[in-house]
Design brief:
Structural class: alpha+beta
Number of domains: 1
CATH class: Mainly Beta
Shape: elongated
Number of helices: 3
Protein name: Signal peptidase I
CATH topology: Umud Fragment, subunit A
EC number: 3.4.21.89
Distance between the termini: 91 Å
Order of helices and strands: HEEEEEEEHEEHEEEE
Subcellular location: Cell membrane; Membrane
Helix content: 10-25%
Catalytic activity: Cleavage of hydrophobic, N-terminal signal or leader sequences from secreted and periplasmic proteins
Radius of gyration: 23 Å
CATH architecture: Ribbon
Membrane topology: Single-pass type II membrane protein
Largest sheet: 8 strands, antiparallel
Length: 212
């Protein structure tokens, strides 16, 4: 009886040892996978929401399910350089940018709607810099006058939370769906800021007269 008890205890220790090893390997695999499917933020165009050096999880499985105000990884320009920006205009939306007291006023009418909104993002008023040209040209870039433009089918209009220091759609125009790598709403590093990335943007309804 005692021999069988010792044998059973040894078997339990053996199973626990293997279980701990498997758990460790799975945890290690999860960390490696998270780092492999992540983006390292470079620059200051999304401050203070995310910072230079932050690492964000790329939800590549959501690249075809992008919503307004999602943070995304996009490939832009001839070189298809990776950037991190916020989706403001969806396909079919009408957008324009003007300035009041030196602060940006982004007006947006959602696709299929007659209701005009102002995009409110508290980060913009904190980050006003020298990039304050009105918008938009037909390709979605900043121009010389406040002109409403419709986001083409299969494209998005992106902005940075650091309004005055961001190269975004005001610089490179509309971004095609095919150039969206995924949605970024989880911060992996630094560990002290691990978790969901805050979303400060929303739509606020305005009177029709204010849109003119």
């Amino acid at each position: 009886m005692m021999g069988r008890t010792r044998g059973e205890a040894g078997a339990v220790r053996h199973v626990l040892g293997w279980s701990a090893l498997v758990a460790f390997l799975l945890a290690l695999l999860a960390i490696v996978a998270a780092l492999a499917f992540s983006v390292h933020v470079k620059g200051h165009s999304m401050e203070p929401t995310v910072h230079d050096g932050d690492r964000l999880l790329v939800q590549f499985w959501r690249r075809g399910d992008v919503h307004r105000f999602d943070l995304v990884e996009a490939r832009v320009g001839v070189a298809k350089s990776p950037v991190v920006k916020r989706v403001v205009g969806l396909p079919g939306d009408t957008v324009s940018v003007s300035f009041a007291d030196g602060k940006p006023v982004v007006r947006l009418t959602p696709a299929g709607s007659r209701t005009a909104y102002v995009v409110e993002n508290g980060r913009w008023s904190e980050q006003v810099g020298d990039r304050t040209a009105p918008c938009c040209n037909p390709d979605g870039t900043a121009g010389t006058a406040t002109t409403r433009v419709v986001v083409p089918a299969g494209s998005y209009w992106l902005l940075g939370d650091n309004w005055g220091g961001s190269d975004d759609s005001r610089t490179y125009g509309f971004v095609k769906k095919a150039d969206i790598g995924g949605v970024l709403d989880r911060r992996l590093q630094p560990l002290g800021s691990f978790g969901r990335v805050p979303n400060p943007a929303r739509l606020a309804k305005v009177a029709h007269a204010a849109q003119k």
